[in-house]
Specification:
The chain is an alpha/beta fold. The protein is 43% helix and 17% strand. The chain has a six-stranded parallel beta sheet, with helices on both faces.
């Protein structure tokens, strides 16, 4: 009989936690293990989760995000591993009750996993007394892309599919944002800069693509972008189409206030599209300025970096080659697979 393992996360479409959870499931799916993937939204309470664990004879859990998934663990008595999701350790906006829940989850976890040394350090600062006696595995996210290179999907298809066939994309210069539409991701941070760049060169367009994770903020984004020329916002599309558009972009842009380890950045580096990203702890842990990508502090600084990228073909070539080499060396999915199998052995070993 295979060992049933529950992977618990908030599985919103297009989110980083979902991508991570699905990749872990693939890593663990073999004849000896049966990984079950559950969205936290299917449980109304900790009791619901406990009943599911008992009914499905779950041996252990892998939980992604100390609060979003961790808040359902009150009634769980089996061992679990906690994967820090990013905002649980990097953001300071949690209230006292939420922080108490996360501290309890961190204390009870048998194994803790961080995507980077930066995230590990942030967790150690946030919970110093709890983590003093605990080991944190540092396991960067593996990057898996089924196909890298031209496909039949293009920006023209994106506009046509959304009733905007009057926008002609031939010879346009696309900067692309890929990520959830919510305040911490701050997709509006650069839109006035892009509107100015479009006014100076109407070939330059800024395209925002991602799932809506905050309805009120998304309404604000739609209203603001609708008033500016050269800025377009679209709902989430399939991952393979996103990869095709990344490949056709001059750069992927990340403007997050705080970041864990953005999958879109890693995938762009693998695809060999330059990344221009806001300088925060998470982004700076994977992007070395002027080596594997470009970091910016503020909108004017972004404009300077973007123009430098457009004007210097040698810089573009060096950035993409270095970024590809960095991903191959540091984000190998086979290494990630081995780590999670070791973690399962720790969780299921006899007490």
């Amino acid at each position: 009989m295979p060992t049933n393992i529950l992977i618990l996360a908030k599985l919103g479409a297009g989110t980083g936690n979902r991508t991570t959870a699905e990749r872990i499931r693939q890593h663990l799916n073999n004849s000896d293990l049966c990984p079950l993937l559950c969205d936290v939204t299917q449980f109304r309470s900790p009791r619901d989760l406990s009943d599911y664990v008992i009914h499905n004879d779950v041996t252990c859990l892998i939980v992604i995000h100390a609060y979003r998934a961790g808040k359902f663990l009150n009634d769980i008595s089996i061992p679990f591993a906690l994967v820090f999701g990013g905002t649980d350790v990097q953001c300071s906006s949690w209230n006292d009750q939420e922080n108490a829940i996360m501290a309890d989850v961190v204390a009870k976890a048998i194994v803790l996993i961080a995507f980077s040394e930066v995230m590990k350090e942030a967790a150690s600062v946030k919970w110093p007394s709890i983590l003093k006696e605990k080991k944190i595995f540092v396991q960067p996210q593996g990057v898996t892309i089924e196909r890298i290179g031209p496909t039949n999907y293009s920006f023209q298809h994106l506009f046509n599919d959304n009733g905007m066939s009057d926008v002609k994309t031939k010879e346009k210069i696309f900067f692309l944002y890929v990520g959830g539409i919510r305040p911490v991701k701050d997709p509006l941070f650069l839109i006035h800069t892009f509107a100015q760049m479009h006014e100076e060169n109407d070939r330059i367009l800024f395209v925002i693509i991602g799932p809506i994770l905050d309805e009120e903020y998304a309404r604000q984004c739609r209203l603001t972008t609708s008033k500016l020329k050269g800025i377009y916002m679209f709902d989430q599309i399939s991952r393979d189409k996103v990869h095709a558009l990344i490949h056709q972009s001059v750069a992927l842009v990340n403007s997050s206030i705080e970041e864990g380890m953005a999958g879109a950045i890693l995938e762009s580096m693998k695809i060999e599209t330059p990344v221009v990203v806001r300088n925060n702890r998470g982004n700076a842990s994977i992007v070395q300025h002027q080596s594997t990508g470009l970091l910016f502090q503020h909108p004017q600084n972004f404009k300077e970096q973007a123009n430098h990228l457009l004007e210097d073909s040698t810089l573009r070539r060096n950035l993409t080659q270095n970024a590809r080499d960095f991903i191959e060396s540091n984000h190998n999915p086979d290494v990630e697979r081995s780590t999670y199998h070791k973690i399962i052995k720790i969780l299921v070993k006899p007490s």
